[in-house]
Design goal:
Elements: E1 6-22, E2 36-37, E3 44-58, E4 69-80, E5 83-93, H1 96-106, E6 110-112, E7 115-121, E8 127-134, E9 141-147, H2 159-164, E10 168-172, E11 178-184, E12 190-199, H3 202-206, H4 211-215, E13 220-232, H5 262-275, H6 286-297, H7 304-339, H8 347-364
Parallel strand pairs: 5-6, 5-10
Antiparallel strand pairs: 1-3, 1-13, 2-4, 3-4, 4-5, 7-8, 8-9, 9-12, 10-11, 11-13, 12-13
Length: about 375
């Protein structure tokens, strides 16, 4: 069978995996049409996973400020004939545009939330500790794991092999059908946990059905080193009739951050940070250091610190402007073109348009 076009490439690193055995009846409402629950040694599992999403390229293109971020997802395992796959109950990322594109492309249950991570390694670079934090204030949640740093390829017929080697994704669609997409990566080295935990408001985040499960210690936990991955475009031809998925009775979307305005960005960078300062030692290339000094010598800035602070303000505003463009223009245009491909421009038309614009600017200049 011909493989679908590549949709996304990335590196998934430091995958913290907490695994819980559950009653299969808890998952029946989430099983996409055409699939059935998969199990290991007679037990059905859900996994809460935090990891780093790095070097991200969408259809071959790297989107500025959207190439490295965290993800935390809650998933379970299914089969479709001989294919073993995963189904996501929820997926959280810190980027609105990433969540929007994933919802559009696969109808996956993505939302966005403030997120951070911390990784500690040994001298050889093997991860010893990992921590993923998401949400804020009373809804802040934390995944933690500690290992002895020893890594290995999971043994055949082991739980760690079962968890890490499901190479297909399935997503229920609003019309009751389902789609299938391939996720390709090599076998992952893993390190068994010496301790692992998840803390936070699980009921608010995942609902009362999953809260008791996620509040208890995991039945197994390990840290996967990760690797480059390739996600292929969803195969629409695999849609099959079946039960309609009606959604989960919990409110992941409540994690969404409010969109900040320019004045709030400037207040945060110019006011809040200034009230509590910290001295840093920053290394710059010679040419950049000279530019900083020149800004001060010209009288435009009172100090080198002010130059750096202004640069951070500009970077924050640039990132915000890109986020607004992705949310309000790029994603809607991508959805519209997918629905009506004839409305798009060919590469030749785009080159001609850019050449005409360049010529117009050149003549004015």
């Amino acid at each position: 069978m011909k493989r679908s076009p590549v949709f996304l490439t990335a590196e998934w690193k430091n995958l913290l995996m907490l695994n819980y055995a559950v009653d299969p009846s808890l998952l029946h409402a989430f099983v996409p049409a055409g699939t059935e629950l998969d199990s290991f040694a007679g037990r059905t599992y859900v996994s809460l996973i935090g990891f780093q999403f790095n070097r991200t390229r969408l259809r071959g293109f790297a989107v500025p400020f959207h190439q490295a971020f965290e993800e935390v997802n809650l998933r379970f395992y299914v089969r479709r004939s001989s294919r073993r796959g995963v189904v996501f109950i929820s997926e959280l990322v810190p980027k609105f545009a990433v969540a929007a594109i994933a919802r559009w492309a696969f109808n996956e249950k993505y939302s966005h939330a403030p997120m951070s991570h911390r990784i500690e390694t040994d001298q050889a670079g093997n991860p010893l500790k990992a921590e993923y934090t998401f949400g804020k204030d009373v809804h802040r949640c934390v995944l933690r794991i500690e290992t002895n740093g020893s890594t290995f390829i999971p043994k055949d017929e082991s739980l760690s092999q079962f968890i890490t080697e499901h190479y297909w994704g399935y997503a229920a669609q609003k019309n009751g059908n389902s789609i299938e997409y391939e996720v390709q990566h090599p076998q992952w080295q893993v390190s068994e946990a010496t301790s692992a935990s998840f803390t936070g408001d699980t009921a608010w985040l995942y609902g009362n059905a999953f809260a008791p499960i996620l509040q208890r210690p995991p039945d197994s936990a390990f840290l996967a080193v990760g690797s480059p991955v390739t996600v292929y475009k969803a195969n629409q031809s695999t849609r099959e009739p079946g039960l309609r998925w009606d959604g989960a009775p919990f409110a992941i979307c409540l994690l969404s951050e409010s969109r900040v305005q320019w004045d709030l960005i400037l207040l945060r960078l110019g006011g809040e940070f200034m009230r509590s300062t910290q001295q840093l030692s920053i290394t710059l290339p010679h040419e950049m250091a000279e530019k900083v000094r020149a800004k001060v010598q010209s009288g435009e800035y009172a100090s080198e610190s002010e130059v750096i602070r202004d640069g951070l303000r500009a970077l924050e505003m640039q990132k915000h402007a890109l986020e607004v463009w992705l949310r309000n223009e790029a994603v809607p245009a991508l959805i519209a073109m997918e629905a009506a491909p004839s409305t798009g421009l060919t590469s030749a038309q785009i080159r001609a348009s850019l050449a005409a614009a360049y010529e117009s600017v050149r003549k004015v200049g």
